[in-house]
Amino acid sequence: MANNRALFEDALARGHSYIWEQSWDEAIAAFNQAVAEIDDESAAYAGLGMAYLEQNKLKEALGNYKLASRYSRGDVIHLRQVADVQERLGQLSEAGKTYNSIGEIELSKRRLKEAMNNWQLAVRLEPNLLSPHKRLASVYRREGATHNAIREYLAIARILSAQGEQATALKAAKTALQLDPRNAEILTAIEMINQGEALIDSSEIPSQSSDALSEVSQQMASVLKEKGLTGDEPSHEAVSPVQDARRLALEQLAEEIFSDSQDDMSMLKRATLLSQALENQRRNMTNEAISAYEQAIQAGVDHPAARFNLGLLYQNNLRFDDAIREFERSVDEHEFRLASHFALGESYRAKGLTDKAIEHFINVLKIVDLGTVQHTHADRLIELYENLADSLITKGEREQATGFANALVEFLSQKGWEDKAKEARGRLDAMSESGVMILGDVLTAGSSQVLESLYLAQEYTKRSMYDTAIEEIYLAIQFSPDYLPAHLQLAETLGKQGRTDASSLKYTTIADTYKVRGDVNGAVIAYEKVVELSPLDVSVKAKLIDMLKRHGQIDKALEHYISMGEAHFQLAQVDSARSAYQEGLKLTPRANQQQEWEKRLLTRVAEIDMQRFNWRQALNAYKKLRQLMPDDERSAITLVDLYYKVGQPNNAIVELDRYLKQLVRSGRGAKVGGILQDMVSRRPADAQLVERLSRLYIQQQRISDAVEILDKLGEAQLDAGETKEAAETIEKILGLNPPNASNYRQLLSQLKP
What we know:
Helix content is 76%, strand content 0%. The protein starts with a helix and ends with a helix. The chain has helices at residues 2-20, 24-37, 42-54, 58-71, 76-88, 92-108, 112-125, 130-143, 146-162, 166-179, 184-194, 215-224, 240-259, 265-282, 286-298, 304-316, 320-330, 334-350, 354-370, 378-394, 398-412, 417-431, 439-443, 448-462, 466-479, 484-496, 500-517, 520-533, 538-550, 554-570, 574-587, 594-611, 615-628, 633-645, 649-665, 671-682, 687-699, 703-719, 723-734, 741-751. By secondary structure, the protein is mainly α. The protein is built from 40 helices and no strands.
């Protein structure tokens, strides 16, 4: 053995000398001689590993470094050499495991920093190694490096989920949630685990700073940056609405303590418990604060502020069911509504109930948006949020729903979010004149470039640079083909450019899309744009009317029936115009103002019949108009005239008498004379008309006027051969003692046998 040791040492020394001289083949030969003498020591294998490595014979180098590590009993120097060669060979998973082993050795030697460096190398090379992630998570959590700890716990959850261990994966994610109950990334991971979806390896996502906004939040940030709507870093303690509500709750409860009478023992007890709860909450003694609030509520305190604060404390302790119970009581209070909806969204999301979470998050954004939008647009805004909820919840757009929730949290994490929301509203209103846009549109655009292009397009349009504006809009559509606000802006811009047909076609396509999506009012607005651009396009009007009727918007449908009739009339399609008005009349019983619509439509039907000399049809229309408008002189006189035209003079007189009596009863008797004079001037041979006017003249002591009209009547009767009737008329004249009575007596004697 002694001779072997001597030969071994000699060969080992020669090998090292050759390495120094960079004589790699000679070094290999020398180290092999050493191994031949003693084959269980690490030095010769380490030398061989180095020589082979310098010759770029990586496999041989790796084999020898592994032997060196084995015989050195885990010397970290040799393990690092193994890991290095494995990495060069592309054996990244093996290299990661080796670095993990080095980390464990360093930990056993109490060299924590070196251990962590190796674990970090391990997970970089092999992200699916569970052990180093667990080690790193534990150390980061102990050291208070919250962000890093969360990253590791999420990695653990991802690995376990991929292995089918969903319960354990969920436990890891909830451990992360304890560190930051409002972290969007953690909540997203919990949702995906609960839904059985694979978690994304964060190493596959381009690197971002730890406090960077989520991708969808960046969409909002990017489009609003010119207005100064971003810039503050989010706080993960609590988003601004919750902070504001918490501050208000503390103030209200402090006032409550001092407002109660201290002479009442029960009130004194409640005040004491509230005081303890507030003090514990301020000192972040969560469990103690919860206990005090619970006792105060049991003692009779039922203030919304107490419920809200207790909900926040439960939420921070991950007692989400209890938190939800309290927030559902505080949400009815106006001052806590916004923050309670937000906290409910967070709590439901943490429980993996995404649909319920989105429902509350949409309520948050709706409340914020209603505070910025013009009052006249409020109903449409509410409807758009209902449609958004339908697309995110009912239609199961999970990925978009998660992005929406993340972006909303990030946006409301900004300081001064209320002012930024108002400025965002101004920007949105400027981006589209064709309809209301909601803040939800910003969060669902799909890319910040979409909104940037739409805003630029609006600016170009203001400068009449229509072609450039349209190019920007097409760019936005290319980024997000299904984003309807972009298509609306395109239709609007085409119309401003004077390309009416193209604009109408675009609005029609948008309307059809709204119909498919179930947004009736959106479709109506788009179709109305087409009608505005092409007022004579009756096919679009018909489509619009049909949709309005089917969805109960009767008054709007009737408005468009009138518009359709006018379009037909302008196109000289008189029969079609009358048919449109008649169809509208059938619908009037379902209208909110039935009589008003009947008046408008019947008037148009009657006018067409009058123009076409269709007296009988016109008579029917005016009979109804007379009932609908009893005080309307034109309708009354026209109806009388129509009775004459259809050969019903007796009915004409009946209708005339009815209207004249109505005038007298209503204190408008002065109009009677003028009406009768006009009637007699047009029909001087009508004995009944002349008789009525003559009676009026006699009452007014206008004898000569009465004689004059009776004289004309008599002449007409003589011309018509109505001798008997003419004689009766002359007798009436003689009864008035006219100046030339002898002439009338002579004429009367000639008429009588």
